[in-house]
Specification:
The protein has about 270 residues and is an alpha/beta fold. It has helices spanning about 5-10, 35-55, 75-80, 100-105, 110-115, 135, 145, 150-160, 175-190, 200-205, 205-220, 235-255, and strands at about 60-70, 90-95, 120-125, 165-175, 230. It is built from twelve helices and five strands. The protein has a five-stranded parallel sheet with strand order 2-3-1-4-5, sandwiched between helices. The longest helix has 24 residues, at about 35-55. The structure holds adenosine monophosphate and magnesium ion (MG). Magnesium ion binds next to loops.
Length: about 270
C-alpha cells in the first residue's frame, strides 16, 4: 500500500485541533499482518541508511519530540525507532521534573543543551512542551507565564530550523480506556509493575485538562518548520509503522549527499 503518513497525520498549521475528531484506533486502512510488518522492516532498513548519510554529511540534525499521556508508548516508540539506527549518532534525552539547577533557569535552557549536533538524531522523551502541559494543568506557574510560552516555543523552534535542525513532533494519541487497560497490564505483570506510580493514577483525574492543554499546544505550535503529528496510538504496531514512515519520509525529503572525498583516490599509492 502506498501511503503518505506525514500528510495524513500532520496537525495542519493554523487549524484548530479537536482531539475527539482524531480516532486513537485509526490505522489508515492498514491491517495488522505481514504487510504492515514488512513495511515497518523496510522503513527500519531505510532509516539505517539515511542515518548513515546524515552522519556522513554532517551538516544538519534531526530532532524527534515525543509527547503523550502516561502509557501512551513513548518508551516503546523509542525502542522501536532505535532498533533501526546506529547508537553512534543518536542521543535520547528524557525530561523529568526540572532539577533545582534547571529550575533556576528559563524553561528552554535545559532543552537547548540537549538539541542534537550536526549529523545526529536526537530524541526527546517528553520535552519543552511539558512546560505548557503538566505545568499548566497543575498551575505550577501563573497563567500569564505559561500562556506566553507558545510564542517562545515557536520562536525557539524557528531558530533551530534556521540553524539546520529538522524538527518532528509526535503526539502519541491513546484513549482513556486504553490507558486504563495498559495500567492494568502493568499491575498484573510483575515485570512491568516497576513502571507504574501513584502519580500516574492521580494524573488520570486530570485527563480532560490534559486534553485541553494538548489541543492548545498542537494548535498553536504546529508550524511548517516544526509540525506536530497526531499518531493514533491505541495499536502499538500502527504507532510504530506511522512514526517510522514519517521519519524516513522526512529524511528522504532532505536530499542529503555524501560529502566529496578529501583525497584523490586515483593518486593514492600503497606502500
Ligand atoms: P516519566 O516520563 O514517567 O519518567 O515521568 C516524568 C515526569 O516528569 C512526568 O510526570 C512529567 O510530567 C514530569 N515533568 C517533565 N517535565 C516537567 C516540567 N518541565 N515541569 C514539571 N514536571 C515535568
Ligand atoms: Mg510515567
Amino acid at each position: 500500500m502506498k501511503a503518505n503518513f506525514s500528510k495524513q497525520l500532520v496537525a495542519s498549521p493554523g487549524k484548530k485541533v479537536k482531539l475527539e475528531k482524531w480516532d486513537p484506533e485509526d490505522t489508515l486502512g492498514w491491517d495488522k499482518g505481514h504487510k504492515a510488518k514488512a513495511s515497518v522492516e523496510k522503513e527500519n532498513e531505510k532509516l539505517d541508511k539515511l542515518q548513515y548519510l546524515l552522519y556522513a554529511e554532517h551538516k544538519r540534525a534531526l530532532l524527534i519530540v515525543l509527547q503523550g499521556m502516561d502509557a501512551a508508548g513513548k518508551d516503546g516508540t523509542i525502542r522501536h525507532v532505535m532498533s533501526g539506527v546506529n547508537p553512534q549518532g543518536c542521543v535520547v534525552t528524557p525530561f523529568k521534573k526540572p532539577s533545582i539547577k534547571e529550575a533556576e533557569h528559563d524553561f528552554l535552557w535545559r532543552i537547548h543543551k540537549a538539541v542534537p549536533q550536526n549529523g545526529d538524531i536526537g530524541i526527546f522523551n517528553r520535552s519543552h512542551y511539558e512546560d505548557v502541559l503538566v505545568v499548566r494543568v497543575h498551575k505550577l506557574v501563573p497563567k500569564d507565564v505559561w500562556s506566553r510560552r507558545y510564542d517562545e516555543i515557536n520562536n525557539f523552534e524557528a531558530m533551530l530550523h534556521e540553524n539546520n535542525v529538522t524538527i518532528l513532533k509526535f503526539f502519541l494519541h491513546i484513549s482513556k480506556d486504553e490507558q486504563k487497560h495498559r495500567f492494568q497490564q502493568r499491575i498484573d505483570d510483575p515485570d512491568r509493575r516497576w513502571k507504574i506510580s501513584e502519580a500516574d493514577f492521580a494524573e488520570r483525574n486530570f485527563w480532560d485538562d490534559y486534553i485541553g492543554a494538548y489541543e492548545d499546544a498542537l494548535t498553536k505550535c504546529s508550524t511548517n518548520h516544526a509540525p506536530w503529528f497526531i499518531i493514533p496510538a491505541n495499536k502499538k504496531w500502527f504507532r510504530n509503522l506511522a512514526v517510522s514512515h514519517i521519519i524516513t519520509e522526512t529524511l528522504e525529503s532532505m536530499h542529503m549527499k555524501f560529502p566529496p572525498p578529501t583525497i584523490d583516490v586515483q593518486k593514492l599509492k600503497w606502500r
